[in-house]
């Protein structure tokens, strides 16, 4: 099964072979992607290298049903949006692939989730249906099997009391929070954490606070919470994988995900490491939708395969599950 191949990738050669197989599968089975490729003069047989694979603009997830399978849809994940705006929809036919992706991805960077109490401070996501972030957090909370793990909507006092208890007990904690809610926390309460607590922001200020850059957000959180660094999760509705940063806004991908940077003046070509351009993502866990996505984010990739997100092409359409605007 192709999904099994994806999650056993060990090196760049494995990744390229799997990516080409996934491209051919999606070219055959995804009519929208096939039409897009054909317009660029790319066919199933013309792709012999990962560098020949076209990236579908992410806006297509707002306009089309992007699927590469005839299987029944198990879940539709939806992006956040302002009233009346068109949201992205990700039609997921196999939730087990998503679950395997975020479980293996978290373990790849942080180890066994059962070692952590998971405290999810995600009010804006809990207030709407179809959030892929809430789905992931819900499963990680279950997997932790810790009685204190759970969601916190607006009961910040209970969250603070729980944190203080866990710190006293020297328990490892994952505090997963949307940006505006973390700021609300530090403005309402004085609490000092320790390095047993991973504070991970997921982005999301839209409609709640003035947008600020990540560097400023992290500096404020570090000062108020007394931690040495703020972690981040980079994910979006259109993906089934996440990249993680353990500090300074520098992200790394799991083995089945890869980021490249396209030339903003020539979107069919990439630019070299250290230069800023459009973020392209290969997410092989998206085997049943589209694995090759040209996002609206601006960023840069370094030689060690880490990447940073600098801002967005279009500041009028900032999605909550993405990162802060520049």
Provide a descriptive summary of the structure in words.
The structure is a single chain. The chain is α/β, with parallel strands linked by helices. It has helices at residues 2-6, 12-29, 31-39, 60-63, 95-110, 123-126, 132-144, 156-168, 179-188, 214-225; strands at residues 56-57, 75-78, 89-92, 117-121, 150-151, 173-177, 197-201, 231-234, 243-245, 251-252, 257-263, 266-270, 277-283, 292-301, 307-312. The chain is globular and about 60 Å long.
Note the main attributes of this structure:
326 residues, alpha/beta, seven-stranded mixed β-sheet, six-stranded mixed β-sheet, 15 strands, 32% helix, globular, disordered C terminus
Instruction: Kindly state the percentage of residues in helix.
Output: 25-40%
Q: Please report the number of helical segments.
A: 10
Task: State the major sheet.
Answer: 7 strands, mixed
User: What structural class results from the helix and strand content?
Assistant: alpha/beta
Distance between the termini: 41 Å
**Strand sequence of the main sheet, in spatial order?**
5-4-6-7-8-9-10
**Helix and strand succession?**
HHHEHEEHEHHEHEHEHEEEEEEEE
Measured by DSSP, the beta-strand proportion falls in 15-25%
Stretches with pLDDT under 50, minimum 5 residues:
315-326
Query: Total number of β-strand segments?
Result: 15
Q: Using the CA coordinates, give the radius of gyration.
A: 19 Å
């Amino acid at each position: 099964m192709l999904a099994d191949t994806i999650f056993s990738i060990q090196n760049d050669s494995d990744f390229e072979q799997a990516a080409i197989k996934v491209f051919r599968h999606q070219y055959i089975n995804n009519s929208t992607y096939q039409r897009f490729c054909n317009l660029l003069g790319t066919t199933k047989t013309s792709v012999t290298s990962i560098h020949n694979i076209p990236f579908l603009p992410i806006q297509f997830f707002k306009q089309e049903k992007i699927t590469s399978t005839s299987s029944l849809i198990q879940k539709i994940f939806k992006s956040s949006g302002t009233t009346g705006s068109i949201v992205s929809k990700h039609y997921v036919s196999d939730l087990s692939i998503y679950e395997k992706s975020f479980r293996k991805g978290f373990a790849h960077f942080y180890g066994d989730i059962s070692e952590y109490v998971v405290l999810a401070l995600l009010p804006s996501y809990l207030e709407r249906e179809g959030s892929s972030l809430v789905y992931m957090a819900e499963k990680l909370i279950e997997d932790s099997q810790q009685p204190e793990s759970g969601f916190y909507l607006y009961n910040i006092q209970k969250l603070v009391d729980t944190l203080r208890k866990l710190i006293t007990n020297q328990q490892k904690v994952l505090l997963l929070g949307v940006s505006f809610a973390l700021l609300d926390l530090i403005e309402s309460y004085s609490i000092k954490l320790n390095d047993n607590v991973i504070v991970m922001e997921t982005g999301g200020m839209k409609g709640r606070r003035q947008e600020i850059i990540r560097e400023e957000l992290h500096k404020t959180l570090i000062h108020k919470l007394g931690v040495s660094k703020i972690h981040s999760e980079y994910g979006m509705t259109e993906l089934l994988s996440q990249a993680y940063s353990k500090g300074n806004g520098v992200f790394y991908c799991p083995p089945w995900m890869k980021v490249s940077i396209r030339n903003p003046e020539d979107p069919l070509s990439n630019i070299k490491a250290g230069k800023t351009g459009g973020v392209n993502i290969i997410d092989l866990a998206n085997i049943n939708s589209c694995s090759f996505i040209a996002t609206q984010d601006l960023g840069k990739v370094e030689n060690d395969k880490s990447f940073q997100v600098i801002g967005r092409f279009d500041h009028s359409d900032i999605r909550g599950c993405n990162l802060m605007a520049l």
